[in-house]
Task: inverse folding
C-alpha cells in the first residue's frame, strides 16, 4: 500500500448520497466500520476522503482510526482506481514462466507502474503473488476475466480489447 | 484478594490485578515500554515477559496477564533476560541511536533499558527508517524514525484526551504511528502524547536543545491557569523555566496536563515581563525605583485612610492565598475600605451568593474526585471542557471507562457532546435558569422529589410557570433528564463559571442546586454540584474574602465609582479590567477618570498602561505559597526561579505597603498561612508543611436549602444573532496571551458562526467580520462550523485586540449583527 495521500478530489465532486445510504444501512450494527467502508469502496471504486469525514462524523469514529483501518487492509484504496484492474501474477510458477516480461510489457504499453492508475482512469495495474491457477502460468486477470499462458503479443491484444470497451 | 508468589515473595492483590501490578505492589520492578498505569494494557513491546510456573513452556507478558490464585512467577531468569535482550536488539535495529542530539536522552526508557540489560552489540543489521520529521507545528515534533511502536500516544489521545489524533497506519514493516491521511499533526496540542512517549519520537519543540534532562532543576508546583489545580513539575535552569516535566504520580490527574499547563509556561520568562517599577511623570510611564514607586502608593493610600470609601481595590484570583489574605487585611483592615472585589464581581457570585444561599458555604459542595465516582454527570455547557480541560479528561475517562451517563445542557455543541452515549440538549442562549427551573418542575410533577425536602412548596410556587417551552427545548427532553437525574444512584451537576460566562451567576447556581437538593443528589460521594472557578485560585480568593461584604462596592460599582469620581484611588493587583470586564469603553473611560491608579502585574497590560504607578510583580514560578483549587484542595506552590529583573511578588509589595501604612508586617508567606489557618475556619488545622505534595481538601458542612431562582424573560431581537462569550480551549483569562504555546494554536479573537448563518451572510471561514451590538463594534475573524446552532455567535474573551468586551455589557446574551467587512 502506498503512503501517498489520497489524490485531492474537490468535495463537491463526490456525491455522498450513496455513502449516506450505506451508513444508514449499517448504522445500528455493532462493529459497523468495516462493512460501511467495504460498501463505500464497492460503490465508489475507492474510498474518497469526503466519505471518510462523513463516516467519522456519522459513526463517531476518529478519522485517524478510519485511516488506520483503510491502510491496514490491502482491500481498501484511497485513490481512484481504473475501470479495468489488470493483475499479473508474479508468484513462483508464473515467475519461472517469464511473468517479468509480461509485467514489463504492460508497464511500457500503459505508462504506469505497479499499483498505479492511468490518467484516464481506464486501467490500474497490480502485481500479485498468486492467483491460484499455476497450471495456466504465466497468468493475468482483467477484472474477473482470466488470461492464461500469457505472451507479450497477448498483452497488446488485451489492451486493444479493453481500449474498445466503453468507460460507463 | 488473590494470593500469588513473585520471585519468592508472597503477595495478595485484587482479583483484577495483572502480574505487573502484583509485582509493583511488592516492590519488584518489571521493565515496560508500552505499558502505562493510566491506559488499558496493550502487551505490545514484550519487555515485561516473565515465567509462570503453571504456564511453563512459554514466556508470559506481565502487563496483560491477570493474576490467579497460587500463581508462582519468576521475573528474572536467564531465559527472561535473554528474551528481553532480544526485544531490545530488535528495537535498536530500527532505532537511530542518535542519543547525543535527542532531547529524551537521560529520560528515555529505551536508553535506560539498553543500559540496564547491557545490550552493547546487535546481532542483526538492517536499514533505519527514513520517515520525514513533522515540523509543521511549533509545539510537538514528531520524529517517527525514533518510534518504537508502543502505541501509547494513540492510546492516551483516545482513552484520556478523546481527540484521536494518532493511529497505526499501514502494516508490517511499513507500519508507523501516523495521523489521518498521514498529514501533519493538527490537534489540541495538550502534549499528552509527548509526556508518555518512552523515547524521543515525540518532543516538546519549545524545549528542544534547551537543556539536558539531568541538568534541570525540578520544582513541584501547581499550574497557574484554571481552577482545576493540576500539579506540575517545573524544569528550570539558570533562572529560567524551560519546560514542564511529566510525573505520572502527580495529582489526581496523574501528571496529565492541557495545552496551557504543558506549553503555556513561557509567559514566565517572556521578554515582555515588567522588570522595573514605572511611575507616570509628565503624562508618561517612566522607570523608577521601588522606593519612589512605593512611596507614592503609600502616600495615596495613607491619605485614603481618612476617606476609605474613596479607595477601592481589585485583585486577580491568580495570587496566592497568602497574598490575597494580605490584600484583604491591607484594604479592609488597615485602609478600612470594603470596596474590594475580584473577577469582575459577577464571576464569583455563583459561589459567594449562589452556593452560600443554597448550601451555606461559599465553595463547591462536590470535589473533583466526585466526577469519576458519579453515575450521571449533568454538565452545564459543553464549554466545561474548554474552561477546565483536565476535568474534561476526567469526564472522558468516566464516560468511556466507567460508563458514567453524560447529559449536557448547552447553548452550543463541543467536544464533550461527541463522547459515546452523551446526550445533549441544546437550548437557546441565556435560558439556563429557565431550563433548570423546568427540570425542577418536571421532578416535582413526576413525583420524583426526595421526601421531606424543606421549602418544597415555595419552590413549587416559584417554578409553577416554568416549562420546557420557555427554556426553548422539548418537554420530552426535560422530562427525560429530570427522571434520569432523580433516579441515578449518584448524580453530579458540573457548572463552570468565569468572566466569559456572565449568565453562570448566583441564580443559575441556585437553580442547579435546587435540582440537586430536590432529588437528594448532594452531600454524598459522586453527587452534588461542582462549581468550577475560572482561575487557579478562584476558590482561594473567595475563601480569603476578596469581595464586598458590607456596604462596599463590587467590581462593577467600583468602575462606576471611578467614572463618577466617588472612587479616587484604585489599587489593581493583577486584574485587567480593560480587556476582561464588560463594556470596554466604559471601563477605559472610568480608569482614565480615576485620580490615581496603581497596578501590579507581570506585564504592561491594557490596564497597567493606564496606571499612574505600575509595580512589576512575580509569576507563580517565582514565589511560594498556596492555591486552592475548585475542588477545595489547598496545594503548595513552590518557587522555582528567582524574580525576573526587579520584580517583587505581590506578597512583598503588599507586605511593604502594610508596614508603611502602620499595618502588620510578616517575615515570610509561611507566617501568613499560619494566620490563615487560625482565622479562616475552613483552613483550620492546615499547615503548609502538612499539605506536602498532594495538598489537602478542606471539608464543608452543607446546610441545603431550596432557593427559588428567577429566570429572565427571553429577549426578542428579530434579525439579530445571539452573542455568547466564553473561553477558548487554549486560553485562560488574559495571561495565556503571553505564552507562546497558546498563542500559536489560538492567536486571535474570533467569532464562531453556524454554517447556515454564515452562508446567509456570505461569510466564509477566516473572513474579517464586524460584530456590532448596542455597546460597540469589533472586528474579528470568522470561524464557521456546526458547533454553534443557528442564530448564535460565540466569541472567546481573552484577547486585547478585538476584545469581545467592546461589545458586551455584562448580560448573559448580547444581541448583535455580523457583517463581512
Result:
Amino acid at each position: 500500500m502506498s503512503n501517498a495521500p489520497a489524490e485531492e478530489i474537490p468535495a463537491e465532486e463526490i456525491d455522498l448520497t450513496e455513502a449516506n445510504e450505506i451508513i444508514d444501512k449499517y448504522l445500528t450494527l455493532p462493529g459497523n466500520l468495516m462493512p460501511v467502508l467495504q460498501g463505500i469502496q464497492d460503490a465508489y471504486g475507492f474510498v474518497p476522503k469526503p466519505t471518510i469525514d462523513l463516516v467519522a462524523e456519522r459513526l463517531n469514529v476518529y478519522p485517524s482510526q478510519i485511516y488506520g483501518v483503510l491502510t491496514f487492509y490491502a482491500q481498501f484504496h484511497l485513490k481512484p482506481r481504473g475501470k479495468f484492474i489488470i493483475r499479473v501474477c508474479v508468484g513462483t510458477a508464473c515467475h519461472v514462466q517469464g511473468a517479468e516480461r509480461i509485467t514489463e510489457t504492460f508497464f511500457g504499453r500503459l505508462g504506469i507502474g505497479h499499483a498505479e492508475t492511468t490518467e484516464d482512469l481506464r486501467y490500474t495495474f497490480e502485481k500479485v503473488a498468486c492467483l491460484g491457477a499455476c497450471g495456466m502460468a504465466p497468468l493475468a486477470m482483467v477484472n474477473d476475466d482470466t488470461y492464461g499462458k500469457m505472451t507479450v503479443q497477448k498483452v497488446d491484444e488485451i489492451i486493444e480489447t479493453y481500449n474498445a470497451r466503453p468507460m460507463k | 484478594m488473590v494470593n500469588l508468589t513473585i520471585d519468592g515473595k508472597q503477595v495478595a492483590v485484587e482479583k483484577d490485578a495483572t502480574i505487573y501490578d502484583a509485582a509493583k505492589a511488592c516492590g519488584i520492578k518489571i521493565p515496560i515500554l508500552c505499558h502505562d498505569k493510566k491506559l488499558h494494557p496493550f502487551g505490545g513491546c514484550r519487555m515485561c515477559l516473565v515465567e509462570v510456573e503453571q504456564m511453563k513452556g512459554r514466556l508470559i507478558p506481565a502487563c496483560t496477564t491477570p493474576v490467579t490464585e497460587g500463581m508462582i512467577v519468576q521475573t528474572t531468569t536467564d531465559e527472561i533476560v535473554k528474551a528481553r535482550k532480544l526485544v531490545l536488539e530488535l528495537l535498536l535495529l530500527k532505532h537511530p541511536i542518535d542519543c547525543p542530539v535527542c532531547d529524551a536522552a537521560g529520560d528515555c526508557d529505551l536508553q535506560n533499558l539498553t543500559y540496564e540489560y547491557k545490550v552493547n552489540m546487535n546481532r542483526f543489521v538492517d536499514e533505519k527508517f527514513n520517515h520525514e520529521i513533522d515540523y509543521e507545528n511549533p509545539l510537538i515534533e514528531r520524529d517517527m524514525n525514533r518510534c518504537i511502536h508502543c502505541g501509547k500516544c494513540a492510546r492516551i489521545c483516545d482513552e484520556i484526551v478523546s481527540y484521536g489524533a494518532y493511529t497505526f497506519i499501514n502494516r508490517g514493516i511499513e507500519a508507523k504511528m501516523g495521523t489521518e491521511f498521514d498529514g501533519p499533526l493538527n490537534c489540541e496540542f495538550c502534549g499528552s502524547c509527548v509526556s508518555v512517549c518512552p523515547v524521543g519520537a515525540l518532543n516538546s519543540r519549545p524545549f528542544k536543545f534547551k537543556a539536558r534532562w539531568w541538568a534541570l532543576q525540578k520544582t513541584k508546583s501547581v499550574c497557574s491557569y484554571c481552577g482545576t489545580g493540576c500539579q506540575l513539575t517545573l524544569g528550570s535552569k539558570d533562572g529560567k523555566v524551560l519546560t514542564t516535566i511529566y510525573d505520572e504520580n502527580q495529582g489526581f490527574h496523574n501528571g496529565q496536563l492541557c495545552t496551557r499547563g504543558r506549553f503555556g509556561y513561557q509567559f514566565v520568562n517572556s521578554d515582555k515581563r515588567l522588570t522595573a517599577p514605572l511611575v507616570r511623570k509628565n503624562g508618561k510611564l517612566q522607570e523608577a525605583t521601588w522606593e519612589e514607586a512605593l512611596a507614592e502608593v503609600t502616600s495615596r493610600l495613607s491619605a485614603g485612610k481618612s476617606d476609605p470609601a474613596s479607595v477601592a481595590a481589585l485583585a486577580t484570583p491568580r495570587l496566592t492565598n497568602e497574598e490575597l489574605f494580605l490584600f484583604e487585611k491591607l484594604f479592609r483592615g488597615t485602609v478600612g475600605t470594603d470596596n474590594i472585589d475580584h473577577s469582575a464581581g459577577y464571576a464569583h457570585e455563583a459561589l459567594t451568593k449562589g452556593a452560600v444561599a443554597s448550601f451555606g458555604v461559599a465553595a463547591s459542595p462536590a470535589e473533583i474526585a466526585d466526577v469519576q465516582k458519579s453515575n450521571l454527570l449533568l454538565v452545564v455547557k459543553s464549554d466545561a471542557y474548554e474552561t477546565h480541560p483536565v476535568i474534561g479528561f476526567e469526564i472522558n475517562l468516566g464516560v468511556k471507562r466507567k460508563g458514567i451517563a453524560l447529559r449536557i445542557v448547552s447553548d452550543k455543541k463541543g467536544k464533550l457532546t461527541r463522547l459515546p452515549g452523551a446526550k445533549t440538549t441544546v437550548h437557546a442562549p441565556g435560558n439556563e435558569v429557565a431550563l433548570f427551573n423546568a427540570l425542577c418542575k418536571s421532578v416535582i410533577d413526576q413525583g420524583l422529589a426526595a421526601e421531606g425536602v424543606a421549602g418544597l412548596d415555595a419552590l413549587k410556587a416559584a417554578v409553577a410557570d416554568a416549562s420546557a417551552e420557555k427554556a426553548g427545548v422539548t418537554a420530552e427532553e426535560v422530562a427525560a433528564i429530570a427522571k434520569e437525574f432523580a433516579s441515578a444512584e449518584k448524580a453530579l451537576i458540573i457548572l463552570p463559571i468565569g468572566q466569559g460566562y456572565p449568565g453562570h451567576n448566583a441564580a443559575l447556581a441556585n437553580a442547579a442546586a435546587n435540582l440537586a437538593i430536590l432529588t437528594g443528589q448532594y452531600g454524598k460521594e459522586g453527587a452534588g454540584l461542582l462549581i468550577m472557578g475560572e482561575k487557579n485560585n478562584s476558590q482561594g480568593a473567595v475563601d480569603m474574602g476578596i469581595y464586598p461584604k458590607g456596604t462596599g462596592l463590587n467590581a462593577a460599582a467600583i468602575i462606576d465609582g471611578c467614572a463618577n469620581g466617588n472612587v479616587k484611588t484604585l489599587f489593581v493587583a493583577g486584574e485587567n479590567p480593560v480587556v476582561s470586564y464588560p463594556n470596554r469603553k466604559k471601563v477605559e473611560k472610568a480608569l482614565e477618570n480615576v485620580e490615581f491608579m496603581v497596578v501590579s502585574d507581570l506585564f504592561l497590560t491594557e490596564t497597567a498602561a493606564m496606571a499612574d504607578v505600575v509595580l512589576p510583580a512575580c509569576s507563580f514560578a517565582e514565589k511560594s505559597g498556596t492555591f486552592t483549587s475548585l475542588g477545595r484542595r489547598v496545594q503548595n506552590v513552590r518557587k522555582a526561579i528567582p524574580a525576573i529583573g526587579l520584580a517583587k511578588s505581590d506578597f512583598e509589595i503588599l507586605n511593604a505597603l502594610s508596614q508603611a501604612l502602620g499595618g502588620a508586617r510578616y517575615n515570610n508567606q509561611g507566617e501568613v498561612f499560619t494566620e490563615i489557618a487560625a482565622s479562616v475556619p475552613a483552613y483550620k488545622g492546615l499547615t503548609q508543611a502538612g499539605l506536602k505534595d498532594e495538598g489537602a481538601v478542606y471539608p464543608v458542612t452543607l446546610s441545603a436549602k431550596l432557593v427559588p431562582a428567577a429566570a429572565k424573560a427571553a429577549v426578542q431581537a428579530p434579525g439579530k444573532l445571539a452573542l455568547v462569550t466564553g473561553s477558548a480551549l487554549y486560553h485562560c483569562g488574559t495571561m495565556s496571551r503571553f505564552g507562546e504555546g497558546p498563542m500559536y494554536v489560538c492567536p486571535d479573537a474570533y467569532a464562531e458562526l453556524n454554517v447556515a448563518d454564515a452562508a446567509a451572510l456570505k461569510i466564509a471561514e477566516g473572513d474579517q467580520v464586524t460584530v456590532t451590538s448596542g455597546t460597540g463594534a469589533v472586528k474579528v475573524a470568522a470561524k464557521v462550523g456546526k458547533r454553534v446552532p443557528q442564530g448564535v455567535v460565540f466569541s472567546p474573551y481573552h484577547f486585547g485586540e478585538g476584545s469581545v468586551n467592546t461589545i458586551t455589557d455584562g448580560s448573559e446574551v448580547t444581541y448583535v449583527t455580523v457583517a463581512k467587512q
The mean pLDDT of chain B is 96. The CA atoms of residues 339 and 603 of chain B lie 25 Å apart. The longest strand of chain B covers residues 777-785. DSSP finds 26 helices and 33 strands in chain B.
